Structures are given as structure tokens and as C-alpha cells.
Design the sequence.
């Protein structure tokens, strides 16, 4: 529907398109022989900008065009009412003067955002303390300040039929693989949904296997981490209203890496990296291994330890498998209560609840003391994993390990590992192998361990970067 030369008719039409919203306002003024009307949502605009950069210039310059008079960069024109209504909800002021069937769309949006703080979910030991926030433009600004090259490309999308969520895709044009970009563009372009909640909706809608426990897209709020992945030729996805960034494609090993590994010596960084992978194995298998040993194969346990286990389990009527499941479920309930409650109360519930429940279940002979130790060590091991999604996957994986170990003993434990490895080997991320791409001869130096910088000459295989060489002559001064 096109604009009408009548200001009153356009006002009624825009009011109808905006569902009779109470914050839709109009303002009339005259400059010379011209009669102007402003249409705007008073909850979305900066009034000072309207007065200083639209009304005053038009009153001062009565013999020039609107484009020449107003001092606003965000300027466009349209004859469509639908375009004008969309501009209004974006915070723009729509200008029309009587007798002309045209709208002038002027950017006057009110910008309110929280300040840039340190990362909340990813603790920084060394490196940048700037974290992403909910404003998309500010996040792009942060990334452009960190990557000062015209090679950084930003592509915008609008997802959601009703929400019109703004999404930005960042990549380095000379590094990102064109086939991966094309596949990503195909997937995100075919999303047909009313409302997009980032990053959760996007993560589920574009990943390869939606039913896998293992995360196939990395989520980060650290700007330095996003920069490092962009420099590897990967793609970063930012959404308006979310302080998180999605990284694709990534391998299984990326979830055990931390930017802090590269801020310290490679020997220390390698130790911490290896420790995280060992803790992941402990988190998924320790309760199952305990159940298998005490239920089927106690003779494998050294005699002194077996005596200790026997004394702790002497009056316990509950089978070991039920002990493990009961304690893990109790731990999950405590963890969820700690997260959902207000911060001071949540910390109190976590400490008091853990101590009280642990003491009561042991003294009442419901759970053995050794099972409390096993579950506590399992929980601590899962907390060592840097990525929240991988921590959650490790906690949930422990349950099938327990069940198979309770049925088949140590054979069930081995079978569980085989099933997990088979599943990982079959997973893809954006059509690229998820697990074994990090085990090639060039990139294995940055998976289990963090090798010296001089040995990390190749970029990760899963990124399929156009330029595979990352480091050429790092210590040229020694020649």
C-alpha cells in the first residue's frame, strides 16, 4: 500500500499497521510555505536528536530539500506504508510534508545498553576483559577494533517472521572456506520460524545432528576467543539481544581449549589441556567404573582398598547402581537450585544442602561414604571443562555408563566407550568431521596438548581455511 498525499489518511493507515499502539505519536510544524508532520514511537526515539537534527534544520532552511536540510546519516525514502511502519518500530522518525506521497525515514533511535563488562560465564585469567553485550552494533564494533583489517566481512540477516531478529555473520574473506559459507547461508536462509531466541534456537536449527548430546557449535562471550577462531578461518554468528557468539565449524577438541592456554608457557598450557581431557573421561566413566568393580569384579581392586570398601558398604542395603544414580540426581537438583535462585541464597543452598544431604545419607546408611567421594570427584571433574555445553554432556553421559556397567560389568564400561567413540566419529559439523579432524598430523599438536607456538604452523583442519599456514617464521631473530 502506497502513501497518500493526505497526512491524516497516512496517520490512520500507520496507526492501523501499528495495532493502535498508544506510543504512536505525531507532531506538526510549518516551515515557510511547507507543512510537515512527524510520525514516531515516543518510546523508541531520542527526542533531542529529533529537535536538533530534524526540526531546527528544516525551520532554518525552508528553500532546500529534506536531504539537504537534515543532518542525519541514517536517511532513506519510501512510498510504501509497510516500509514506513517497519522503520517506526526500529526507532526511526518518519517525516512527510503535505501534498507529497513520500516518506522520509530518519534514524533517531534511542540507544540504551549496559556497559561492557568482564565475561561472566568464562573467567579470564589473562587476556582481554571485554565481553560481548546484548547490542549487536556494539559487538560488531568490539570485533572490528580487535581485527583491524578490511578483510573482516559482516553479513546481516533477519530471522523470524514476527520477531525480525537481527543476526550478523562475521568471517575473514581471505580465510573462510567458500563452500562452508555457502552451506551456512543455505541453512540459515531456510529457517522459517515466527520467533528466534539466540543463541539456543540458532544453535539447534543449523547444527547437523539435533539429537546428539555433544555440542557441535561453540558458544562464547569472550571477544579474544572469537577473534582467535575468526583468525582460524571460522565463522562467528552474533544476534541482537544476546551477549553470546556462536562459532562454526568446530571440532570436539575446541571445547577443551581456552584462550588462557596461549597466554602462558606451552608446557603449563599443555598440562592444563591434558588435565581437562582426563577430567572429561573421569566425569563420564568414574561412577560406572565404581559400579562395575563393586558389583562384578571386586577381585580386581587391591586388597587394602577392598577392605575399606567392604567396611563402608557393610550396612548399605541399596545396590551400587541405585546409589550412584540417586547421588548424581541429587547433585543435579542442588546444582539447578543453586543456579536458579538469587545469588546469595543460591550459594547458601549449595553449601548447606551439599553438607546436610551428604551427612544425612551416610549416617542413615542409605549411601556409602565411598559413593559420596566418587560422585563428588565426578562433579568436580566436570567443572574443569571450560565449555558449559560439554560439561552438561559429560554429566548426562555418566548415566548410560552406569547402566551398562551395572548390566555387563567392565565389559559394559568398555562398550560404553566404544559407543561414544563411534558416535563421535560419525558426527559432522557443517558437513566437516567433528572428532577425528583434530587428530591429523598437522593439528594434533593443539588437541591433547598445546604445543609450542612454533610448531602450530597449520590452522585447524575443520575450518578448511583457504590459507592453511598460520605461522611461518616465528623466531626469525635466531638466524
Sequence:
Amino acid at each position: 500500500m502506497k502513501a497518500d498525499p493526505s497526512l491524516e489518511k497516512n496517520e490512520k493507515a500507520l496507526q492501523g499497521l501499528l495495532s493502535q499502539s498508544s506510543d504512536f505519536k505525531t507532531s506538526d510544524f510549518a516551515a515557510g510555505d511547507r507543512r510537515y508532520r512527524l510520525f514516531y514511537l515516543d518510546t523508541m526515539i531520542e527526542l533531542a536528536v529529533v529537535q536538533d537534527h530534524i526540526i531546527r534544520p528544516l525551520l532554518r532552511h525552508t528553500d532546500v530539500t529534506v536531504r539537504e536540510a537534515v543532518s542525519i546519516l541514517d536517511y532513506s525514502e519510501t512510498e510504501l506504508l509497510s516500509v514506513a511502519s517497519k522503520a517506526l518500530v526500529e526507532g526511526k522518525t518518519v517525516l512527510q510534508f503535505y501534498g507529497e506521497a513520500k516518506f522520509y525515514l530518519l534514524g533517531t533511535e534511542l540507544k540504551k545498553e549496559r556497559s561492557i563488562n568482564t565475561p561472566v560465564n568464562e573467567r579470564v585469567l589473562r587476556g582481554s576483559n571485554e565481553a560481548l553485550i546484548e547490542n549487536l552494533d556494539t559487538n560488531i564494533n568490539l570485533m572490528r577494533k580487535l581485527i583491524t583489517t578490511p578483510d573482516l566481512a559482516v553479513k546481516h540477516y533477519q530471522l523470524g517472521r514476527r520477531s525480525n531478529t537481527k543476526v550478523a555473520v562475521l568471517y575473514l574473506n581471505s580465510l573462510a572456506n567458500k563452500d562452508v559459507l555457502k552451506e551456512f547461508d543455505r541453512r540459515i536462509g531456510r529457517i522459517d520460524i515466527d520467533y528466534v531466541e539466540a543463541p539456543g534456537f540458532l544453535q539447534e536449527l543449523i547444527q547437523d545432528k539435533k539429537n546428539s548430546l555433544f555440542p557441535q557449535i561453540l558458544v562464547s562471550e569472550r571477544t579474544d576467543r572469537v577473534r582467535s577462531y575468526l583468525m582460524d578461518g571460522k565463522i562467528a554468528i552474533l544476534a541482537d539481544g544476546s551477549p553470546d557468539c556462536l562459532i562454526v565449524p568446530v571440532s570436539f577438541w575446541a571445547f577443551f581449549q581456552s584462550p588462557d592456554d596461549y597466554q602462558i608457557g606451552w608446557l603449563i598450557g599443555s598440562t592444563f589441556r591434558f588435565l581437562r581431557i582426563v577430567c572429561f573421561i573421569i566425569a563420564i566413566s568414574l561412577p560406572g567404573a565404581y559400579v562395575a568393580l563393586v558389583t562384578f569384579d571386586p577381585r580386581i581392586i587391591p586388597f587394602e582398598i577392598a577392605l575399606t570398601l567392604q567396611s563402608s558398604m557393610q550396612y548399605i542395603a541399596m545396590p551400587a547402581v541405585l546409589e550412584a544414580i540417586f547421588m548424581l540426581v541429587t547433585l543435579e537438583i542442588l546444582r539447578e537450585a543453586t543456579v536458579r535462585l538469587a545469588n546469595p541464597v543460591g550459594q547458601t543452598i549449595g553449601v548447606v544442602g551439599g553438607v546436610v544431604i551428604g551427612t544425612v545419607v551416610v549416617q542413615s546408611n542409605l549411601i556409602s561414604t565411598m559413593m559420596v567421594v566418587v560422585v563428588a570427584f565426578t562433579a568436580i571433574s566436570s567443572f574443569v571443562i571450560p565449555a558449559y555445553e560439554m560439561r552438561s554432556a559429560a554429566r548426562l553421559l555418566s548415566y548410560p555408563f552406569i547402566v551398562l556397567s551395572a548390566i555387563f560389568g567392565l565389559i559394559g564400561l568398555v562398550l560404553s566407550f566404544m559407543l561414544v567413540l563411534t558416535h563421535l566419529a560419525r558426527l559432522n559439523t557443517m558437513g566437516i568431521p567433528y572428532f577425528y579432524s583434530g587428530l591429523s598430523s598437522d593439528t594434533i599438536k593443539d588437541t591433547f596438548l598445546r604445543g609450542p607456538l612454533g610448531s602450530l604452523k597449520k590452522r585447524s583442519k575443520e575450518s578448511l581455511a583457504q590459507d592453511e599456514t598460520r605461522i611461518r617464521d616465528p623466531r626469525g631473530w635466531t638466524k
Observations:
- Residues 276 and 385 are 6 Å apart (CA to CA).
- Residues 274-429 form one domain.
